[in-house]
Design brief:
It is built from 15 helices and 18 strands. The strands form four sheets. The protein has a six-stranded antiparallel beta sheet with strand order 3-2-1-6-5-4, sandwiched between helices. A five-stranded antiparallel beta sheet has the order 8-7-11-10-9, sandwiched between helices. A five-stranded mixed beta sheet has the order 13-15-16-18-17. The protein is α+β, with helices and mostly antiparallel strands.
């Protein structure tokens, strides 16, 4: 059979370099487009701020013109005398009408109304049919109170319903000025100038490309009017605009928004510039570039598709083989379908997987035999040790004729022997604690009450699994070593408490304690990482404690830990932490 022509893997890689170059060009374009986008944004920002500044100046200039008109009227001595007069004579009315007629033809966007301090129910204007019109008492209005209590010279009323409004209409925009006596500075009347904001609206600038609209809002957030498109201003921008005279900027949806406060009125002026209009040409060019780029990319991908298919197929098989090994399938073999560099990698992978499988099989067999031998050897060191001590105790009781005590000890030993004959490597905490209680009862009778056992057991822990004969050696150490020199007053405390998914077991005594040197050496032995547990047992004098430690370590693995605290003359405190596990022995962790 003719072998497939060897294809260079590096040659295929070179085709991918073409793709990489294309992608790099795309990235370069994107960066350039982002830079261009930023430039447009900065230009729009500058133009928006300039337009907003110009419109703010237009608004302020409009109201400064109204202030100049008001000043010319307020400081007119003839008007001052008319407002101070107690009665309304025809000559006085003529003075008022002549003043109003001066501005009637030149400023048709304004309407002048006068109020006399001494005539709170009259409004004077040439727009009335009579010389004056009866109104509600203006001294009860909010603006009157504001002018007289705050000491302000003028007050702006925006979108306020006016009962004093002349010739009907629902709402007015008015500036009301206080007119003081030229000689005493006491108020003699008020000038009200009603404004047609349509004239102001005509003056606003809208000639910049991309401008969507200009909107003016009153101090309470109400829209006074807008030119072009009504803008949807975010709430936070409204709040920021009212608190600062600086220009506020916001990008909302497809619009750049710019807001600022009018110094003359406190109104919020907003300008909206459309992003779509600004970017339309640039986006069109961008789409053309991307279209050409993606067409080129498609051609390149078509050219390399055939070669990349073989590479992808073999790499996928190799990846599946690696994943199978991760899952524990060491017998996996990958079949290559190309005669190239990838094939050699796959052949080496198959050889490596085969060797690993054989090596792991040998290690698992040896480890299983070692673990089983070590656990049995460690358990056998517990059983004879306790039986010898129990027999000596019974012989001592019999020689002293202590029948009732012998019966009690025999009951305990009988239960302990039944427990001992169970061949399982683990048991429940309930059974292990019962064994410990029988053990301490035997020794308590034997030692004439020289110590008192105390138990503090959390019932929730009793069904948890634990290594068999793991607590009794620790209690035996506490009694044998801790109570050596005591004839009475000894205390052995056994506590079991559940904390979340962990169980803490404490065995504490008030005996003679452990010297600092021995305690440090014991801690080093407990922390040692020695693969030969039996050899470690042979070289240590702490057989009981290390026996428990090593069996616990084999059974629970890293989930087990032990801590020892001791002080000479005060006693020893051993704390063991194990996982709360209620599974049967065959399901428990074995190292």
């Amino acid at each position: 059979m003719k072998r497939m022509k060897r294809q260079s893997f590096m040659r295929r890689i070179s085709l991918y370099m073409v793709l990489l170059i294309l992608i790099s060009n795309l990235i370069t374009y994107l960066f350039a487009y982002m830079f261009f986008y930023q430039t447009i944004y900065e230009n729009a920002k500058s133009s928006g701020k300039n337009m907003l500044t110009a419109n703010l100046q237009i608004v302020d200039q409009y109201f400064r013109q109204i202030d100049r008109i008001a000043d010319a009227i307020i400081y007119n001595e003839s008007l001052n005398n008319v407002l101070k007069a107690e009665t309304d004579t025809s000559s006085n009315m003529q003075v008022l009408k002549s003043i109003e007629q001066i501005y009637y033809h030149s400023r048709d966007d304004l309407r002048l109304i006068f109020y006399k301090e001494n005539s709170p129910r009259n409004a004077y204007s040439i727009y009335t049919k009579n010389d004056y019109e009866r109104i509600a008492n203006f001294k009860a209005s909010h603006w009157y109170e504001q002018l007289n209590n705050s000491g302000q010279r003028k007050v702006l009323l925006t979108n306020i319903h006016s009962e004093e409004q002349i010739n009907g209409g629902d709402f007015v925009h008015s500036m009301i000025y206080r007119i003081d006596d030229l000689y005493s500075n006491l108020p003699v009347g008020y000038l009200r100038i009603d404004m047609d904001l349509a004239k102001l609206q005509e003056r606003l600038m809208m000639d910049y490309v991309g401008v969507e609209g200009v909107e003016i809002l009153s101090e309470d957030g109400g829209v006074l009017f807008y030119t072009g498109k009504e803008l949807d201003l975010p709430e936070h921008l409204l709040a920021e605009g009212k608190e600062s005279a600086a220009i506020q900027e916001e990008s909302a949806g497809g619009t750049f928004l710019y807001c600022g406060l009018s110094g003359e009125t406190g109104w919020l002026v907003a300008v909206g510039i459309s992003k779509t209009d600004l970017y339309r040409r640039e986006v069109t060019i961008g789409f053309l570039f991307l279209t050409v780029l993606f067409l080129t990319l498609g051609i390149c991908l078509t050219v390399v598709d055939k070669n990349s298919e073989i590479l992808n197929r073999n790499m996928s098989r190799l990846t599946e083989g690696m994943n199978a090994i991760k899952q524990g399938d060491l017998e996996i073999q990958v079949n290559p379908d190309a005669d190239d560099e990838i094939e050699r990698v796959i052949v080496n992978f198959n050889d490596m997987a085969k060797q690993i499988h054989e090596l792991v099989g040998k290690i698992e067999a040896k480890q299983a035999l070692l673990s089983e031998a070590q656990i049995k050897a460690l358990q056998q060191q517990i059983n004879p040790h306790f039986i010898y001590n129990s027999m000596e105790t019974l012989m001592g009781m019999a020689s002293e004729g202590m029948d009732s005590e012998i019966i009690e000890i025999c009951k305990c030993i009988s239960a302990m022997l039944r427990y001992n004959t169970k061949m399982a490597g683990s048991t429940t905490l309930k059974e292990e604690l019962t064994h410990v209680q029988n053990y301490t009862k035997v020794l308590s009778i034997r030692m004439g009450g020289s110590f008192e056992p105390q138990y503090m057991i959390d019932p929730e822990c009793l069904d948890a699994r634990i290594v068999k004969f793991s607590l009794q050696p620790l209690v035996e150490n506490a009694i044998g070593h801790g109570m050596d020199n005591r004839s009475k007053g000894g205390l052995i405390y056994v506590g079991v408490q559940k904390y979340g998914e962990e169980i803490e077991i404490r065995i504490k005594d008030n005996g003679c304690g452990i010297s600092p040197v021995k305690l440090e050496k014991l801690r080093e032995q407990l922390l040692a990482d020695d693969e030969n547990y039996l050899k470690m047992m042979e070289n240590s004098s702490n057989t009981g404690l290390l026996n428990v430690h090593l069996r616990m370590k084999l059974y629970f693995g890293s989930a087990y830990s032990i801590f020892i605290e001791s002080e000479m003359g005060k006693g020893t405190d051993i704390r063991i932490q194990i996982p709360y596990d209620t599974r049967e022995e065959t399901e428990c962790i074995v190292l």
